[in-house]
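WARN no homologs supplied; continuing
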Amino acid sequence: MAGASSPIKRLAAILDAVAASPSGLALKEIADAIGLPMATTHRMIHSLVDIGYVEGGSGRATFTIGPRLLRIFHLAFDTDTLATLVEPALRAQTEDLGIAAYLVQFKDSRIDLIHTTMPVHPSHTIMHPGDAFPINASAAGKVLFAHQPRERQLEELKKPLIAYDDLTLTDHGAILAELDKVKARGYGTSDEELDRGVLAVACPVELEKIGVIYSVGALGLKARMLADRDVPEIAARIARTAAEIKALLEPLRRSGEAS
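OK structure emitted
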């Protein structure tokens, strides 16, 4: 985009050039690609680094698309297509565990349910994850917020907290301690904290450079879920699904860098 006049067009030209080279571009390569002086390119590329749209500098020889822009790419991805993509992995988990499997996505101000698979021929009552994933009571909500910065967790705790049951956490200190435990352990649980008699277990899907904006979960009647396996065993099976979905979504990151 040689000759681009406005700062916005110049920034867009830099992003276009960097995105077209997933392996990264050196500062001079970017300047040559967009037809700007090195000094101007240096100033503008570092303004993009400062806001997370580009990654590089500070001793790195090349610049690549940054985590914030990749996160935006994922959040803008068509939900129906994403649901179709993850259906086989969720379906396999449902067949193995005999309960609902689901994928949710963290969108900063809310958590959206992307897709759910239910048993085809259930032999008992089945549960649906619904559309509420609070930080203090849901397995997926705990997982997603556990992987956010502390300031984001504290911001969420400023909102009114609902005590869904006697077992629901409402004390801020207890909730933060629970989030730390979830992150260290690798999975979160909702043990009758939303609904009496219902257990949910969720694991993070951690994407390279982006972090955790997806979580995979399973839920059902607690007594039946624990009849022939314990919570760590359930979490291990969900972690397998999370790894499969990570493998599916990582190419989306690479295509976002190359688009």
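Residues 105 and 167 are 25 Å apart (CA to CA).
OK
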